[in-house]
Write a structure and sequence with these properties.
about 575 residues, alpha+beta
Amino acid sequence: MPSSAPPAIENRPARSPFTGPGECGWRVWRAVGEAFLAGVLVLLFPQGVSQLGLEGGPQAIGIALVLVRRRFPAACAVALAALTGLQPAVALLTAVAGYTAVRQAETVRRWAGLLLVAAAAAMVTSTAFGALSGVSSSTFGLALGAVLALTAVIVPGMAGVARGQQDRLVRAWRERAAAAEKARRLADSESRMRERSRIAAEMHDLVGHRLSLVSLHAGGLEMALDKAAPELRDEAALVRSATRDAMQELREALGVLGPLERDTGTEALTDATGTRADVEALVEESRSGGIPVELCWEGADLDARPARVRRAVHRVVRESLTNVHRYAVGAQVTVDVRHTGEQVTVRVRNGVPPAPPAASTGLGSGQGLTGLRERVALLGGALEAHPEPGGGFAVVADIPAEPGPAAEATDAAPDGPEEAAALEGPGGGLSLMPRRLAGAVTGLLGLLGVGVVMGFGIVMVVSALPDATHRDPEEARLGMTRERVEEVVAADSDEVRAAAAGREPPRPGSATDCLYPRPDAEPGGGRLGIVRYCFRSGTLIAIDRFTVPLVTEKATEPPRRNRTHD
């Protein structure tokens, strides 16, 4: 009996380090980081444009929508686009949500409709807010909405379309590569099975035929010696019996090389193979040969289990008892079979034999245990054979009670960690974190570019419509207070007062004070246009418009005037 055996090797698929609780922790940290970055984007938006919208509430709503954009992509993108028309400070958040939503859209109709609806929402709300708020005009609101729709919705959306198509193309190529690899494995497995079956058939035809001839001649020799030499008849009978046993063992060995879906070999396809009655018969046979064997069975019988499982149990018990007969004659043997709902455990242990085996027996080649180990491994189980610490030897086999197809278990296992990581698809394996980091950096750079283009467009709109953000200036009229007149026109100018001194028309008799603001128009024709506002007790009572010659000229002409009186 072999003294040692290599431990069973299990093929287990590589497990991603970012699954289970680790993935939840990553999502929490991602949400915190996104909330912080969204707040920074809102605060860093040009404050001059932010003053056109509402304050406080829209920014908070925008940050909340960005955090749930993955669960409700289309709704968040449209809502943020509409919110951008009210508060341009959330435009960069709209770009992020639009990119995410369009990237997840798989059809042209879906992403095109989403972009059109979001862009229209931004333009409509911006135009309506500009017309109704009184802070700006509808023209300015429409122009600003067009810029925001283009830079915050259309441009990020097209980038999301390109990235989504790239992701789907990569995923399709990976699935195709995985399917091709699986097909190759199935083809290789089928080729190996056909070759194994061919080898088994060849060996059965060649060696089996020769052994049949030997058995036939041995039987004839036994009959001939029955009368000629009765003392040699037993030897001939022994040759015939050994030949028959060799034929039986050959067929059983060739059954391992046959198709895995079939149980081949003698005594392998009966309904009793591997059941409790069958194991008891093996134990009783060993007892009749002088081996003290004790059987312990726990659990239900195996008559309802697949034939492959029952045959494996039969082979483990029989091979173990055969080895005891060869190498540990007279040793105490214990056969334990434990049947649970999911597994069948077979343990055959022998103690120290009373006498060492004969020298002619040898130590054996260990091929019997190797065949058992292969048979159990094909069912998805494991077999261990090892010496006991106190002496003796033990064979332990763990066999699944309901094994799956052996070909699937063999073909599904990847060849190495590189292939296992490649078959996990996008975001799998140890390269997940570098991919996410690279994606975050690329996204920030793209967002920076969108912000630059957006700022440039807003500046151009503001420059093209300089008066769109202000009301028409109010004209001074009689009855206004002095403070209000100074707000409407301008403050008093000492230079203009000095130029008008001695050249201005007479003031109203009831006027207590006059205001001489600096004129808006440049002097023309050598004369300076002046508008004089006269007050009585702080109330405007007269507005006089007249011209005076410049200081460099001689003041010989009378002043020209246009007076408005209370």
